Amino acid sequence: MARFDPYENNGGTCVAVAGADYCVVAADTRLSVGYSILSRDHSKIAQLGSVLKFDVQQFRAEKCVLASSGFQGDIKALQKNLAAKELVYEHNHNKKMSCPAMAQLLSNTLYYKRFFPYYAFNVLGGLDSQGKGCVFTYDAVGSYERTGYSAQGTGAALMMPVLDNQLKSPSPLLLPARDAVTPLSESEAVDLVKDVFASATERDIYTGDRLEIVVINSSGTHRECIELRKD
Amino acid sequence: MQTSKQNWAECRLPSPLDRPSLKAHRRPNILAERKAQHEYWRRPSFFLLPQSNPASAGCCFNSNSDPRTKEKGKRRERVREREKRGKKQPRRSPLSHRLRTQIRMTGSMDLPAKGGFSYDLCRRNDFLEKKGLKVPGFLKTGTTIVGLVFQDGVVLGADTRATEGPIVADKNCEKIHFMAPNIYCCGAGTAADTEAVTDMVSSQLQLHRYATGRESRVVTALTLLKSHLFKYQGHVSAALVLGGVDVTGPHLHTVYPHGSTDTLPFATMGSGSLAAMSVFESQYKEGLTREEGIQLVSDAIRAGIFNDLGSGSNVDVCVITKGKTEYLRNHELPNPRTYVSSKGYSFTKGQTEVLSTKITKITQLKQKVEVAEGGDAMEE
């Protein structure tokens, strides 16, 4: 007797890398179910605030971008939920949400559904109040941590070791604790992210089609796409 | 009803060991005896007896110095004397045989009786499943394999991706296997099963060729495959597309893991079979030329490569005609790597943090043992 399974994994991988004054958030655009591809052009990156269908220019969180992989049904619901809560925050506090504030909000939203979780593996990227890049990585129920870089999704296990090696991140076992932000320049970080996705696409069947890269700077948010293997 | 511990112990079912043996009065401690006998033969020093006699070098058991041999010899003499006197040997009761087997089995290795499959763990798996252990599902085959018959013969095609769950294990593996110079076989399913079964049948076909002096026929390969797969009741997970040209003409067959076969003008198997079959069903016609056939097969495999996540990388094609076979390995490479970092990677010393170092010297060998050459008693 097959029970109804409320979850489904739509695959995909998300990565974020924090720099001294920038943040790179990237995700592939493949949506799959089982062994089939549902869409080659489905974005996993959301600029929070823009999912609501009215003029959101003035309501967007200040330079904060969420990339999620997992069950896209839950992810869409989560994005809507966050956008609504963000709007309420702006009405109450008369200012846009900073990235660390959004990080805490996301954690609370996820834990609120602790016993029927959002099947979403999130990576939040942006600039903090001092203008430095920040990346927050989450598990499905809201445990989060500020790190210098992170990968989540089906290809995460393939990417993390390469990122660990290349981003010269100090070991968390060293004392005193050192800053996790990478010393790489923005173009080098983007080059690394492209290469790491191309490598993960070779070996992970759920990653591929196209790569969407969002770079958050002091000058604004810039979006770029490159092609990946389509098999 | 009062069931104290004592009563419960008494209520247990009598085991066969409790039953009094008919000859128990003669050999009252038969169980202890047998156990001791078994333990003697299984003692650790058994294999480390010193080589006192150079004639028995290479043999770990020296029968001359072993005291047990003499006892066994005595028993044999007794049996021989009984036979001389004309008396029949006493019939061994099934009980004593079971006793002997029971004791012999204690401590011995759990090997399957003969070669082949041992299904002992199936009972354990059922038990674990009842206890609530989640059984890992069988992996769906990640492959697209196709075959079609054209005017001069048969064209086979396959993708080149081998998957282990969601990970690509081999980006460029060979799925078209050699059976005979005029017969090739594409395999989908568990890679080990397809390799083993096609190698086995290929060897059998060669022996058959030597015996008959004729070129192998496709139906021979088909019958050998299907009878093997049926014998294993689907546990050998090999789904094959078998094609070839022999004296009776071109043939194309599909073989399923349970042993059923189909004879078809065009066929597809594997997880990408639906994508490939959609191409075949829309574009196949009888009497295709060689170029059309190769193009259609490549199109079908490419459909599987791009639309099925279990298939990918390159297209392999094999064209078999009367008297000639062409194996076009990597006929098409539609998936080059999209991005290579121009900066490259350097792995200099010091990139990985060393937290602590401990150096342990490896001790030298104390003794070198030389094996002397001589007559080997075991070789006789």
From TrEMBL, chain A:
Name the GO cellular-component terms. cytoplasm; nucleus; proteasome core complex
- Where is it mostly found? nucleus
Q: What does this protein do?
A: Non-catalytic component of the proteasome, a multicatalytic proteinase complex which is characterized by its ability to cleave peptides with Arg, Phe, Tyr, Leu, and Glu adjacent to the leaving group at neutral or slightly basic pH. The proteasome has an ATP-dependent proteolytic activity.
Annotated InterPro entries: Ntn_hydrolases_N, Proteasome_sua/b, Proteasome_suB-type
Phylogenetic lineage: Eukaryota, Viridiplantae, Streptophyta, Embryophyta, Tracheophyta
Q: What is this protein called?
A: Proteasome subunit beta type-1
Which CDD domains is this protein grouped with?
Answer: proteasome_beta_type_1
Q: Which species does this protein come from? A: Dichanthelium oligosanthes
Q: Spell out the Pfam families in the cross-references.
A: Proteasome (PF00227)
Key word Zinc present: no
Alphabetically sorted, this entry's keywords are:
Cytoplasm, Nucleus, Proteasome
Question: What processes in GO biological process is this protein linked to?
Answer: proteolysis involved in protein catabolic process
Tell me the subunit arrangement: The 26S proteasome consists of a 20S proteasome core and two 19S regulatory subunits. The 20S proteasome core is composed of 28 subunits that are arranged in four stacked rings, resulting in a barrel-shaped structure. The two end rings are each formed by seven alpha subunits, and the two central rings are each formed by seven beta subunits. The catalytic chamber with the active sites is on the inside of the barrel.
Automatic annotation (TrEMBL), chain B:
Catalytic residues in the record: T143
Q: Does the keyword Protease apply?
A: yes
Keyword annotations from UniProtKB, A to Z: Cytoplasm, Hydrolase, Nucleus, Protease, Proteasome, Threonine protease
The record's EC number reads 3.4.25.1
Q: What is this protein called?
A: proteasome endopeptidase complex
Role of this protein: The proteasome is a multicatalytic proteinase complex which is characterized by its ability to cleave peptides with Arg, Phe, Tyr, Leu, and Glu adjacent to the leaving group at neutral or slightly basic pH. The proteasome has an ATP-dependent proteolytic activity.
> From which organism does this entry originate?
Dichanthelium oligosanthes
Q: Does the keyword Protease apply?
A: yes
- Bias class Basic residues marks the residues at 85-96
Q: Spell out the subunit comment.
A: Component of the 20S core complex of the 26S proteasome. The 26S proteasome is composed of a core protease (CP), known as the 20S proteasome, capped at one or both ends by the 19S regulatory particle (RP/PA700). The 20S proteasome core is composed of 28 subunits that are arranged in four stacked rings, resulting in a barrel-shaped structure. The two end rings are each formed by seven alpha subunits, and the two central rings are each formed by seven beta subunits. The catalytic chamber with the active sites is on the inside of the barrel.
